[in-house]
Amino acid sequence: MYAVIETGGKQYRVAEGETLRVEKLPASAGDKLTFDPLMFADDGGGVTLGRPHVPGMKVEAEVLEQGLGKKIIIFKYKRRKSYRRKTGHRQPFTALKITAISGAKA
């Protein structure tokens, strides 16, 4: 069974037992989160498409960690003008483990 959830302005296809990194959420390691409403759900035989959301279904997840991604280098350069700027950025993330996809189907 899998579902499509929306968090941080992005949509993610999730299944039970998998881990994923999403945009930073206000939770600490070990917290339980619930994502509802869902955009889409599939239980192996029947597909439920939300218009725009699937009512009565939810995805439960556990926060594994809060962290920072790999550093991305930003380098601005204008030739012949002695202009160089080098900065870096590390995007914060929340690592989640999907524990359950449950609920009554519409």
Task: Describe what this molecule looks like in 3D.
With 106 residues, the chain is mostly beta strands. The chain has one domain. It is built from no helices and ten strands. The chain has strands at residues 2-7, 10-15, 19-23, 32-35, 38-42, 47-54, 57-68, 72-78, 83-89, 92-103. The strands form three sheets. It has a four-stranded antiparallel sheet, with no helix packed on it. Strands 3-10-7-4 form a four-stranded antiparallel sheet, with no helix packed on it. Strands 8-9 form a two-stranded antiparallel sheet. A hairpin with a 2-residue loop joins strand 1 and strand 2. The two termini are 16 Å apart. 13% of the residues are buried. The mean pLDDT is 89.
- Averaging pLDDT over every residue, what do you get? 89
Reading side by side through the largest sheet, how are the strands ordered?
Answer: 2-1-5-6
pLDDT < 50 runs, ≥5 residues = none
- What percent of residues are in strands? over 45%
Q: What is the count of DSSP helices, taking H or I runs of 4+ residues? A: 0
Distance between the termini: 16 Å
Let me know the largest β-sheet. Answer: 4 strands, antiparallel
Number of strands: 10
Q: Which value, in Å, is the CA radius of gyration?
A: 19 Å
The 3D shape can be described as: elongated
What structural class do helix, strand and pairing data support?
A: mainly beta
User: Could you state the order of secondary-structure elements as H and E?
Assistant: EEEEEEEEEE
Structural domains: how many: 1
Helical content class: under 10%
